[in-house]
Amino acid sequence: MELIEIAFVGVIVLLGGLGAYVIVSRKKPTSKEKSNSVSNSLNELNPAVEKDSQVIEAKAKAREIIVEAKSLALNIQSKAQEQARQIKEEAIESERKANILKAQVDARAKELESKAKSLASIKEVLEKKQDEIENFHRKKQEELEKISMLSKEEAKELLLKSLDKDLAEEKGKRIKEKEEEIRKESHEMAKQILMEALEFGSTDIVIEHSTSKVKLPDEELKGRIIGKEGRNIRTFEELTGVDLDLDSSPGDIIVSCFDSVRRAVATAALERLVADGRIQPARIEEIVEQTQKEMDNIMYKAGDSLCHKIGLYNVSKELIQTLGRFKYRFSYGQNMLEHTMETARIGVYIAEELGADVDTVKMACVFHDIGKVLTDKDGSHVELGVEYLNKFKVPSEVVKCIAEHHDDKFSSIESAIVALADHVSGARPGSRGEDYESYIKRLKDLEDAALSQDGVEKAYAVSAGRELRVFVKPEKVDDYSTALLAKEIARKIELEQNYPGVVKVIVIRETRVSETAK
Q1: Which of 83, 110, 208, 273 counts the highest number of beta carbons within 10 A?
Q2: Mean pLDDT score of the chain, rounded to an integer?
Q3: Secondary structure, 3-state, 253-299
Q4: Which parts of the sequence belong to the HD domain (predicted)?
Q5: Coil, helix or strand at residue 517
Q6: Strand ranges (DSSP E) for 431-472?
Q7: Which band of pLDDT confidence, cut at 50, 70 and 90, is reported for residue 24?
Q8: 5, 16, 8: which is closest to 53 by C-alpha?
Q9: Euclidean distance between CA atoms 475 and 496, whole angstroms
Q10: Is-contact 450 485, C-beta < 8 A?
């Protein structure tokens, strides 16, 4: 196409010189005349046309175009030759690869053909062996039938029975192995859950002793606490029911009492008296009475804090007040407030792991020992707790868990979890002191022995049970009867109770007369 365009341009340039002749000529000549005329005109005009600047310029451009066209044609020819060479090389390479592939296919075909022949021969040998085995089996079967005098069906039945027996034994063996495996895995899983529950729910301190300490800012305060002729300390011990030890620890007063509520009241009252500085019988009586009234508020806060930490809400105020008594109640030396919190945390963790009802377990763990602080009635703490909770319409599932938490049989998984959590909290190392409960019971029995006598107003067991202080009503017991009352109490203790060493019984009769000046 480019060569045609170049030729076309050249023709246009050559025809440009004929323009003048075409314009000058007006007559229409014949063809012959036209031919001659053109020839003559060209001859005549040739020198003039060649000298024309446009013609010269057109010829120069035509030469340039022709040179450029030749150069372009050479480039095109060179590229075409290079492409032809590459195509030829690629064709040769493809042919070489095709030959290699064909050789590989031929070799694979020969290999497969050889294997097919080998398999055919093996198959033929196996068929012959199969025929031989069948013939041998048939002959042996005929021989066995002759020897055993059994038909084929009878032998088959006997064989199946034997097989069933073997399978039953194997089945039993497998079942036993699986049971052992499952039991082992379940024990390991249970141990893991219990260890994690114990780690999750354990608290730092769950044991307290029967003594408390009150720091004194000045050693001279001990004399003021004792008072003239010991009347201040005697009044304090009579009102609170505790034993004050001022000599064992310098700078401290040791408050001793097995009843934690009495000890707490005495400790708080003594701290107030020390801070107030006015230590006299009237002020002591006022402070002790005020502290005893505030104890209810302290216990309510303790119960409310327990419910809040565990996440138990919508609990009646009376139940919260009763739970607050756990703050000053101990079981085998284990503080019940801490024990309840620990039991609830362990129970909730186990319930979550086993997919049990978490809310039921949580509430049951909180109230499972509530009967231990209900001392106004006789009965086990389980019975008292169930009876008490039924008054507040606690869900039956929760009450059932509490009723069964010391049993061996459980009606639900939640009951088993509550019993397990209680046992883990109480039985783990360091949680309880086994002798503490019997110690408290012995001191309580001593006080009950005195309170069962007529005319006795108060009775306090002090000095670890080696001394029993009895306060009588002066209007019912006179000075002459106090000695007889002391002997009767001592005799009752000797006959009904077991105790180490001796118990000193002190009967105190005090008369107060007060008048008001107007």
Answers
A1: 273
A2: 78
A3: EEEECCCHHHHHHHHHHHHHHHHHCCCCHHHHHHHHHHHHHHHHHHH
A4: 336-427
A5: coil
A6: 456-462, 467-472
A7: very low
A8: 16
A9: 29
A10: no
Provide the CA 433 distance to its chain's centre, in angstroms: 32
411 half-sphere exposure, CB direction, 13 A CA radius: 9
Which residues lie across from 215 on neighbouring strands? Answer: 252
Which residues lie across from 507 on neighbouring strands?
470
Give CA–CA dist 504/367, Å, rounded. Answer: 40
pLDDT in tens, 215-227: 888 777 888 888 8
Cβ 439 vs Cβ 258: under 8 Å: yes
For residue 12, which amino acid is it? I
Beta strands 467-472 and 504-508, pairing class: parallel
> What would the 3-class secondary structure string for 128-170 be?
HHHHHHHHHHHHHHHHHHHHHCCCHHHHHHHHHHHHHHHHHHH
Place of tokens 């009767």: 488
Question: In the structure, how many helices (H) and strands (E) does the chain have?
Answer: 17, 8
Nearest to 238 by CA among 509, 518, 464: 509
As a whole number of angstroms, the distance between CA 332 and CA 262 comes to: 18
Rounded distance between C-alpha atoms, residue 301 and residue 325, angstroms: 10
pTM of the model: 0.45
- Beta-carbon contacts of 368 under 8 Å, excluding residues fewer than 6 positions away, are 340, 343, 385, 401, 402, 405, 418, 422
Checking DSSP bridges between strand 243-245 and strand 330-331, what pairing results, if any? unpaired
Tokens of 480: 């002459």
Check residue 86 and give its pLDDT: 92
**Nearest-CA neighbor of 16 among 48, 63, 40?**
48
Cα separation, 54 vs 20, whole angstroms: 13
The answer to whether 352 and 341 have CB atoms below 8 angstroms apart is no
Amino acid letter for position 322? T
Helix, strand or coil for residue 245?
Answer: strand
Question: Whats the size of the chain, residue-wise?
Answer: 518
- The C-alpha angle 77, 80, 86, rounded to 5 degrees, equals 145
Of residues 251 and 470, the one with the higher pLDDT is 470
